[in-house]
Amino acid sequence: MSPADGRILAEVANCGLEDADCAIAVARAAFESGVWAMMAPADRKMVLVRWAELIEAHADEIALLECLDVGKPISDTTGVDVPSAVRTIRWSGEAIDKVYDQISPTPKDCLALVQRMPLGVVAAIIPWNFPLSTTAWKLAPSLATGNSVILKPASNTPLSALRIAGLASEAGLPDGVLQVLPGPGVSLGRHLALHNGIDGLTFTGSTEVGKQLMRYSGESNLKRTFLELGGKSPNIVFADSNLEKAAKFAAIAVFYNSGQTCTAGTRLIVEETVRERFVEMVVAESQSWMPGEPLDPTTTMGPMIDAAQLQTVADYVEIGRQEGGSLIAGGSRILADTGGSYYEPTIFDGVDNSMRIAQEEIFGPVLAIIGFKDAEEALAIANDSIYGLAGAVWSNNINTAHRVAAALRVGTVGINNYFGGDITVPFGGFKQSGNGRDKSMHAFDDYTELKTTWIEFD
Ligand code: NAD
């Protein structure tokens, strides 16, 4: 269904439990045949690099699919989502034949090898907010390390994953090594997570479902389960920072992708001495994020993914009002006549960190502004969250910036930037934001077991 006008875009298969059983059997057979798992890393590299090239060659088509399916602005899907997926797959492919295993420091009559082995059959379950990027983040390292993979996209956004899986086949990925199964989380996703034929489960989505998946693992075969979950990230602005740049990024941090971003900077924590002025600057910035038609190249923010998410946002705005937050921008649905789920950039000032709008993930364009007096108080507020995914610190004092960044209990922290990072750095959360790491060479750890071979000489 199109988030921009509510119309049906395409119909795709709705896979059931028998389809999943069949896919798992096929994946197992492919894994055990060694056609991919035992292929030389240099040859796996060639397939992945070819795959990245094919995605690049079809960039416009895939960017359009992602724009229509998710309601993301076309400038984002062409400028961010597709290039980042290409780079992720190419980088992981190029890295895999540079990874050495280890020899341990044994006595001289022994030799001990410590080798990475693929897990076997991996299931990847992904969300709707960054379908192409999360598909690439999961598939690139899991395939590079020799696993067979079954990917279940979110039921409302399957198109880009289906398209690039076809290109993987064209690139020479052997049959059965990658299968994409669209279908509902509560039946198909649950079945995969409970299945004894799945050795590893990699998940990006909500903390609530992540907890359920850990339970499923315990109830079945203790499959390795890696989770990338929700967030309520703090963005801390000190008075001595470049306020203009900080205000611009405070808006980017929360309104990018209509706020449907796990790392969104939804709690803006501002030093009291500049708060009034800074809040005005952020409100001014928010005006350039008025939502519009995703296909328009000048659009910065599209609609919410669907009517249910729109309602969640509206409910939270009402909760924020009742909690005593001061609504200083936005707060309404707009463009309702299009049939799309558009919501204005919305800002609450005077928020207390104990309020629900400061503690719970809204997943929409809603910013909560909280004041602080000193670094100690800023840190106490920032770390007072069940989440620990990301955050940022703005200060031109290197001591303040470093001390606060180091003390933030989050997986990724920006100093004088927001959303910084690329494929070379790991991505994942502390606390209830997850336990795995996507991207970088560290992602290979999630998809491999360490195996020791101990050899003794006569
Ligand atoms: P979700 O948890 O509802 O769904 C994610 C996936 O899990 C979907 O494919 C869904 O079909 C499936 N699923 C749902 N219930 C299931 C079950 N019982 N068993 C197995 N699978 C099930 O999340 P969403 O609404 O699609 O995405 C938004 C959430 O994802 C937010 O909380 C956001 O913060 C998080 N997210 C995290 C990251 C990260 O890297 N940390 C990135 C993007 C999104």
For the largest beta sheet, what order do the strands appear in spatially? 10-13-14-9-8-16-17
Question: Could you give me the name of the CATH homologous superfamily of the largest domain?
Answer: Aldehyde Dehydrogenase, Chain A, domain 1
Ligand types? nicotinamide-adenine-dinucleotide
The Rg value, from CA coordinates, equals 23 Å
End-to-end Cα distance, whole Å, is 68 Å
Helical stretch tally: 15
The total domain count is 2
Would you kindly provide a brief summary of this structure?
This protein is of the alpha/beta class. The protein has two domains: 17-229 and 433-456, Aldehyde Dehydrogenase, Chain A, domain 1 (3-Layer(aba) Sandwich); 234-422, 3-Layer(aba) Sandwich (Aldehyde Dehydrogenase, Chain A, domain 2), CATH 3.40.309.10.
Verbal overview:
- By secondary structure, the protein is of the alpha/beta class.
- It folds into two domains: 17-229 and 433-456, Aldehyde Dehydrogenase, Chain A, domain 1, CATH 3.40.605.10; 234-422, Aldehyde Dehydrogenase, Chain A, domain 2 (3-Layer(aba) Sandwich).
- The chain has 15 helices and 19 strands.
- The protein has helices at 17-33, 41-57, 59-70, 74-96, 131-144, 159-170, 185-194, 207-219, 243-255, 272-286, 307-323, 356-359, 375-383, 398-407, 443-446, and strands at residues 102-103, 110-118, 121-125, 148-152, 178-180, 200-204, 224-228, 234-237, 267-271, 326-329, 333-334, 342-343, 346-349, 366-372, 387-388, 390-394, 412-415, 430-431, 448-456.
- The strands form five sheets. It has a seven-stranded mixed beta sheet with strand order 10-13-14-9-8-16-17, sandwiched between helices.
- It is globular, with a radius of gyration of 23 Å.
- The N and C termini lie far apart (68 Å).
- The model has no long low-confidence stretch (mean pLDDT 98).
- The chain binds nicotinamide-adenine-dinucleotide.
- Residues 125-130, 152, 154-155, 185-186, 189-190, 193, 204-206, 209, 212, 228-231, 262, 361, 363, 389, 429, 433-434 line the site of nicotinamide-adenine-dinucleotide.
